[in-house]
Amino acid sequence: MTSLLRRLGRTRAFARVGRTVSGLDRRIQQATDGRWSVLGRPTLPQLVLTTTGRRSGEPRDAVLLYARDGERFVVIGSNWGQQHHPAWSLNLLADARARVAVDGRTVDVVAHLASDAERERLLDALRAVWPGYDEYAARSGRDLRVFVLAPVAG
Question: Which superkingdom heads the taxonomic lineage of this protein's source (predicted)?
Answer without folding.
Answer: Bacteria
